[in-house]
TrEMBL record:
Transmembrane segments: 29-50, 62-82, 102-124, 144-162, 191-214, 261-282, 294-317
Keyword Cell membrane: no
Compartment annotation: Membrane
Source organism of this protein record: Salmo trutta
Alphabetized UniProt keyword annotations: G-protein coupled receptor, Membrane, Receptor, Transducer, Transmembrane, Transmembrane helix
Residue ranges of every copy of the G-protein coupled receptors family 1 profile domain listed in the record: 41-314
One Pfam family hit: 7tm_1
The UniProt record lists the keyword Membrane: yes
Molecular functions (GO terms): thyrotropin-releasing hormone receptor activity
Family statement drawn from the similarity comment of this UniProt entry: Belongs to the G-protein coupled receptor 1 family.
Protein name: Thyrotropin-releasing hormone receptor
InterPro entries from the UniProt entry: GPCR_Rhodpsn, GPCR_Rhodpsn_7TM, TRH_rcpt_1
Cellular component aspect of the GO annotation: membrane
Gene name for this UniProt entry: TRHR
Amino acid sequence: MENVTEAQENQTWGTWTDQIIEYKVVSTLLVFVICAFGIVGNVMVILVVLTTKHMRTPTNCYLVSLAVADLIVLIAAGLPNITDSIFGSWVFGRSGCLGITYLQYLGINASSCSITAFTIERYIAICHPIKAQLLCTLSRAKKIILFVWVFTLLYSVMWLYLSDIKEEAYENDVTIVTCGYKVSRQLYLPIYFLDFGIFFVVPLMLATILYGLIARILIMNPLPSERNDKSKNEQSNTTRGCKNSHHTSTTATSRRQVTKMLAVVVILFAVLWMPYRTLVVVNSFLEQAYMNTWFILFCRSCVYLNSAINPIIYNAMSQKFRAAFRKLCLCGRKGSEKPTGGTYSVALTYSVVKDTSMVETTDQFNTELDEITCEITCELPDKKMTSLSPSLFLKQGIQT
């Protein structure tokens, strides 16, 4: 795989030398492990949100969109990199070159837009809770996600016309097939820097500003909704007041925890993409591109890791995701979220503001209840429980 640049077009190919066996083994195993964990983890994120009713919040919808985009990156960029390391040549033909290039840019751009979308959603939910009642709803989140994918689907179409395979003949009678750009360097660089600005620089600048405003609100001022909850607590009886006070504290804690989790996702996005983006920008101004194979492997691995690490972050920083993952792993098909008509039921009704903030009021209790049911059901499968309810993009860009 190669980026067709002006310098390379004038290059005379010498003797072909294959990659050393150490590089092949390390690159193949490293990328395979990252992709395997990433694919399994992102599939689990999608499953727990789609199959668990109280997990279907606006924020989680954006996380599902991000998981789908990460899956596309891992499959379209990570797995072809394994075959490239093993065979040293493009093995998927011209159609594969066009399709895989398209999917790579689609996944990368959709993930960036999804991160931008939930960053804005967090800002509105925390800093403007009144507006959040109208803006941060589940139906609106679905419409925004639909727009994100339609936009990125159409935007990425241009790469179908910019990519093609190329045969490179070497002096020792070796012909290598590569998948790269068929446009000149002068045409490719403006397109790349446009892509770089829209899907990396702008999202990071926006995230920096918005999370800075969110941090100021969370550190210096109590959440506006907390004051309303406290006034309501004073007017209620003692028992009800204690419950509401507990729910208020849980709401504030949950909002802060979710915001921290999403901020970590954004920070990792910036840090893990930085080596690759920096290398591409530097190579864009060098007459002879820096092409150290081990450093390129490091840059690629960081990008693949960015698409694989998010489910680990959710599991480590979100109690709801952790319980849902545990239920999915332990119970499989035996786990049931739908009430069985037993002697206990919990109403899953909560306000829009709480829903957009992923708060854990009755939902938290339901998650814990499902977790207990799951553990008992898995340990005693014969007993019926009725009382509880349960890469092309990387290599091409680097060579600019």
